């Protein structure tokens, strides 16, 4: 099993206090669903079908090169009323990328998206403090409260579901992946997770962003 934290801890939040980890909303119990690495045919479309069943909104953090290859799928995301965010053009690891290249790659993704967004998620959650300062001039950086682990082929789908439910609560930003790698686990976990929390009175919303100009 891969080494990752299902629940973001105090240390992570302390290192990156500028980033969004959770959204407090006392009005009603709400979960903020996010999907990384798409758009991908069939996989992203499956996600859209499941979200529709529960009147759920989500935010899709898109890889620019996938947008280039599958723009028709991006249009389906937008037509369904969901939000999009920037996830770099080539899924770059900020710790291993110089600042100039990293920022140029973000801009390249933005140009490919063709929609205005002020939301950015660093791939792997790995971004240097110097990059944070630059990125925050144009974007809010969205991390997560709960990492489902659907990308881990060694994590049984039942365990992924159990841990995702265990750690998710009001205001949680939860990460799934609409990727081929995550597909076998995600397609099991997502509908069951949605049903579990819907039965308990939760709503599902996109991460809020003030800038959204359509497509």
TrEMBL record:
<keyword id="KW-0479">Metal-binding</keyword>
<feature type="domain" description="NodB homology">
    <location>
        <begin position="29"/>
        <end position="205"/>
    </location>
</feature>
<dbReference type="GO" id="GO:0016020">
    <property type="term" value="C:membrane"/>
</dbReference>
<dbReference type="GO" id="GO:0005975">
    <property type="term" value="P:carbohydrate metabolic process"/>
</dbReference>
<protein>
    <submittedName>
        <fullName>Polysaccharide deacetylase family protein</fullName>
    </submittedName>
</protein>
<dbReference type="InterPro" id="IPR002509">
    <property type="entry name" value="NODB_dom"/>
</dbReference>
<dbReference type="InterPro" id="IPR011330">
    <property type="entry name" value="Glyco_hydro/deAcase_b/a-brl"/>
</dbReference>
<dbReference type="GO" id="GO:0046872">
    <property type="term" value="F:metal ion binding"/>
</dbReference>
<dbReference type="GO" id="GO:0016810">
    <property type="term" value="F:hydrolase activity, acting on carbon-nitrogen (but not peptide) bonds"/>
</dbReference>
<keyword id="KW-0378">Hydrolase</keyword>
<dbReference type="InterPro" id="IPR050248">
    <property type="entry name" value="Polysacc_deacetylase_ArnD"/>
</dbReference>
<dbReference type="Pfam" id="PF01522">
    <property type="entry name" value="Polysacc_deac_1"/>
</dbReference>
């Amino acid at each position: 099993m891969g080494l990752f934290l299902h629940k973001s801890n105090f240390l992570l939040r302390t290192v990156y206090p500028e980033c969004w980890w959770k959204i407090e909303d006392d009005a009603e119990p709400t979960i903020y669903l996010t999907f990384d690495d798409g758009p991908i045919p069939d996989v992203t479309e499956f996600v859209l079908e499941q979200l529709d069943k529960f009147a759920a909104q989500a935010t899709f953090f898109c890889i620019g090169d996938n947008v280039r290859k599958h723009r028709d799928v991006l249009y389906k995301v937008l037509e369904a009323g969901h939000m999009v965010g920037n996830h770099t053009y080539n899924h770059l690891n900020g710790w291993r990328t110089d600042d100039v290249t990293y920022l140029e790659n973000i801009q390249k993704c933005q140009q490919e998206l063709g929609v205005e967004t002020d939301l950015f998620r660093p791939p792997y959650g790995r971004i240097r403090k110097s990059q944070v300062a630059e990125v925050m001039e144009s974007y809010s950086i969205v991390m997560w409260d709960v990492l489902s682990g659907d990308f881990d082929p060694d994590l049984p789908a039942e365990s992924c579901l159990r841990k995702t439910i265990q750690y998710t609560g009001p205001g949680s930003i939860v990460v799934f992946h609409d990727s081929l790698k995550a597909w076998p686990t995600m397609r099991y976990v997502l509908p069951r997770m949605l049903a579990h929390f819907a039965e308990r009175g939760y709503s599902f919303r996109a991460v809020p962003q003030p800038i959204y100009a359509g497509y």
